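Supplementary notes for students who missed Thursday's class. We covered one full example, reproduced here. Read the sequence, then the structure, then the short commentary at the end.
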Amino acid sequence: MTTEMLIVLLLLLFVVVALLTHVIPYGVAGMICCVTLVLTGVFTIEESFASMSSGNCIMVACMIVVASALGKLSFIKKLQAKMQEMKGTKGILLLIIIFGFTILLSQFMGSTACLSIMVLLVQALDQDSEIQPGRIFFIVSVMNCLWVSRIPIGMGVAMTGIINSLYTGIGGEENMLMVADFLKVGLIPSIIGTIYCLLFYRLVPKTVMNEAAAPAGTQKKDEPPLSLKGELVIWGVFIAVTVGFMFQDTLGSNISNIIPAAGVLVMILFKILPVKQVTATLSSDMIFMVIGMQTMSKALSATGVDQLIGRMVLRILGSNPSGITVVVVFCLVAAVMTNFMNNMGTMSVLIPIAASTAIAGGFNVRNVVLVVAATAWMTAFILPTGSSAAIMGFGMGNHSPLKTMKFTLPLLAILVVSLIIGANIFYPI
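Structure (token representation):
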């Protein structure tokens, strides 16, 4: 083990403790990682802070600003009012509607875009009820993890290609995934996880949502309603952003990620959003957390810590493991890794190893690969480092991971078991 690997592992330990305890703000923890990586010589300044100018970071920050503008629309106001009317005795029905919106949006756009829209609806909930904003927004972020790209439309089609590209030189054409495979292997756990969220949402603590990270975008009582021109501008920005995410494969990530920034500039020029509100959002704690977590993910890869984890998996499996042992171990390792790295990082490291192991043992390659891929996306909600959905769920919802574990850990166990069963129903090991 090199000195750089040791430094990164210690920083990873620091991040875990900081995120679990929430003693210091998430963004501060992220910046400590960036600065430490430079001071110890692991990264240069440019490398450590490159995430500040990354497409994903710019998109995340600007989508939150766009969401605050969407909150000014009369349509959103009416929808929020309708949701207020449905609270109380119709609580479960209200949750089903919220979940339905989340599942639908999760098929057409990324987690950040989906949750930026959902936060507007959730903020309309009664703070004093059981179905209150801070609690439900965290549940919505979990729902996004359960269902993102699940159905083979929109981003779901691209998911199959992404997974195939990670082991195409190992598995051969005969083991490549079909477009509906990702849906089939994850459908049972997605449904079971949704039922769990409906029944046990009260296990998530009530919190006051982080206004700095998620501006409500609601009008003050003395603020005049938007003009027709203002409504049209916001709708135009929203449609442009949505189309950009839906056709990301055609337009390219550079274009789809920069459209929200262009939309923010348009709304500033048309005086729909004040500059102070925009700058406050762009410099919020959650944005700095995104920067820090992206940098740590790159550090894990650049120093070879991710490969170290992969080799540990092989040692755990031993020389002649059974098929079910292979599936269980890869599922558990993916669940742990995805909560410290990101979804794509976890898949990139484990899928080639999983495919190679399955071929060597004479097992069903699709089974093991799909279990790793589904686990990497579905279980990335234990820590804020797991996914963009987790970042927003913890950051906007102002949650401590330790306090949410009485909800997340049982769900994780249910998902792992149901995913392994589901995979063996469709693709026996």
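Commentary. Residues 297 and 341 are 5 Å apart (CA to CA). Confidence is low (pLDDT under 50) at residues 212-222. If anything here is unclear, bring it to office hours.
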